Amino acid sequence: MSIGAVLAHLRDEFPEVTISKIRFLEAEGLVEPQRTPSGYRKFSPADVERLAYVLRMQRDHYLPLRVIREHLDAMERGAPPALPPADARPGPMEEADRELVAAAEASSGVRLGRAELLAAAGAGDGDLVEWESYGLVASGPDGGYDGDALQVARLVAELGRYGLEPRHLRAMKAAADREVALVEQVVAPLRRHRNPQTRAHAEATARELATLAVRLHAAMVQAGLRTRP
Q1: Angle made by CA atoms 187, 193, 195, in degrees to the nearest 5
Q2: Mind listing the pLDDT tens digit for each residue in 158-169?
Q3: Of 143, 150, 184, 220, which residue is most buried, by most CB within 10 angstroms?
């Protein structure tokens, strides 16, 4: 089946699924369709069922992709995985995983002009000038803004409503830059590889490391706040 045919098949049960979602799950190593000589994906019935299982586990059990991958590995070994109750609610970290994935998918391919970014973030031109002066938001070579810039702008604007100004966020930007450097140390050798699959694995690894870094940061902030009198 082509990726379009797979999408049509899955939408009977999962109306919210998109082609970008299928591609994301492939990049995460949860499904490995064959490729034609011209590079088109060809999904087998087993691939489609595997995708449906992943989507079902996310929808019904709120499982992060890492756990779902472990379940699939266990099933391939013939060991049925233990599942939480279908009505179990996700914990804060699992919910953060779902929000990160949703944000990454929503921002994929987004390109905005300056006025569009300001409207989407609910900010004024003076705000954006200040954000850019602190390196929080940056435009591309064409002067436009991508989905990542939009996410940052919205979050900076939201924090501003609590009285946190761009100058207060410099420490967060510096910490993010250090985390980027750490991730790059891990994935740089993979990105230089000639094998396209290895390079794709590098991108999936970078996303996973970024998610773990965000979760660690959130856990440390929560732990620190709990210890305060």
Answers
A1: 120
A2: 999 899 999 999
A3: 150
pLDDT over 80 (residue 221): yes
Dist. CA 24–CA 103, nearest whole Å:
12
Please write the tens of the pLDDT for every residue from 40-80: 899 999 999 999 999 998 888 777 778 888 889 888 888 87
- 34, 45 contact by CB (below 8 A): no
* pLDDT for residue 1 is more than 80: yes
Closest CA to 34 of 56, 10, 6: 6
Q: Return the closest-CA partner of residue 143 out of 117, 122, 113.
A: 113
> Strands 34-35, 41-42: parallel, antiparallel or unpaired by DSSP?
antiparallel
What is the CATH T-level fold of the domain 3-89, as seen in this structure?
A: Multidrug-efflux Transporter Regulator; Chain: A; Domain 2 (1.10.1660)
Written in H, E and C, the secondary structure of 5-30 is: HHHHHHCCCCCCCCHHHHHHHHHCCC
CATH number of 107-226: 1.10.1660
Alpha-helical regions (H) of the chain:
3-10, 19-27, 45-61, 65-76, 92-107, 114-121, 125-133, 147-160, 170-191, 196-226
